[in-house]
Amino acid sequence: MEKKKVRVLAIQMESVIGDLDLNIDTVCKLLQANLNKYDGADFVFLPEVWTVGWYPQEFHNCAEPLNDSKAVKMLQYIAKKYNTNIIGGSIIRIDNGKFYNSCPIILRNGDILGTYDKNHLFSYYGCDEGSFIEKGEHPVLAEIEGIKLGITICYDIRFPEIYREYRKAGADILVNMAAWGKSKKIPWDSMTTARAVENQSYMIALTQTGLLNDGTENLGHSMILDYEGKVLDEIEEIEGGIYAELDLTKMYLFREKCTILKDIKEEYKVIKL
């Protein structure tokens, strides 16, 4: 079996609501500081809506077309300068008059591999995301340098079906990039860990920190988890980076010893008593 080890870096930051240029500058500085600190990485991850912050009413004001985006151009610059692949959290992307909560996926040479558009939109407790953007049509498995990454954004974490499909499609690393409220710490910690354990996959669970527009706060508890749910690195309520070297060979051997996918039934028909 080919030995595979992958260096991953995730950036936790605090967005200023509606200030696209300031947020781009903040992330650029955080990326460079942490890539220098850890002497590079194979994959870098950013949180959800880092360009605008979690305030759907501001989404349209900070929206950019993918191919003419100041945020994406900055990420392309960083990717080339540091020779790293970037899973770019999410920006608000405008395309033919429609808006999407969209993750740009950028290769080491600066090329855009593609995007993932958030499949499930959070429209509860006063957060009306679905009134401002369109729902993504399908999951996206990004294969980069032989590593398969299953991409999700925030509210997607509440739908284990999408992660199971990624695992069945061969995902090595599951990713959830969020702007997650501080009042929901137990669901965040529990669901991100569960997605890793039930799918025997490494998990990047990345959220923002800092204040929201209504005076509430983002959680600020980003983690890198292994395939058994062990925390490899984590950060609390500050801006900064978390880093780990993922040993995919150990994960593959673990999967061979416990072949859970073979035990999945074709159908789970509920019998009412």
What keywords describe this structure?
alpha/beta, 13 strands, 273 residues, 7-stranded mixed beta sheet
How would you describe this structure to a colleague?
Helix content is 24%, strand content 27%. It is α/β, with parallel strands linked by helices and 273 residues long. Strands 1, 2, 3, 4, 5, 6 and 13 form a seven-stranded mixed beta sheet that branches. A hairpin with a 5-residue loop joins strand 5 (98-106) and strand 6 (112-117). Helix 1 (20-37) packs parallel to helix 2. It is globular.
Q: Could you provide a short overview of the structure?
A:
This protein is of the alpha/beta class and 273 residues long. The chain has helices at residues 20-37, 70-82, 160-168, 185-199, 248-257; strands at 5-12, 43-45, 85-87, 91-95, 98-106, 112-117, 140-144, 147-153, 173-178, 202-207, 222-225, 231-235, 240-247. α1 (20-37) runs parallel beside α2.
* N-to-C CA distance: 48 Å
Biggest sheet details = 7 strands, mixed
What structural category characterises the helix and strand content?
A: alpha/beta
Q: What is the CA-based Rg, rounded? A: 18 Å
Low-confidence stretches: none
User: Which overall shape is indicated by the principal axes computed on the Cα atoms?
Assistant: globular
Series of secondary-structure elements, N-terminal to C-terminal:
EHEHEEEEEEHEHEEEEH
Query: So how many helices?
Result: 5
Helix content: 10-25%
Provide the residue-averaged pLDDT: 96
Report the oligomer: single chain
How many extended strands? 13
Strand content: 25-35%
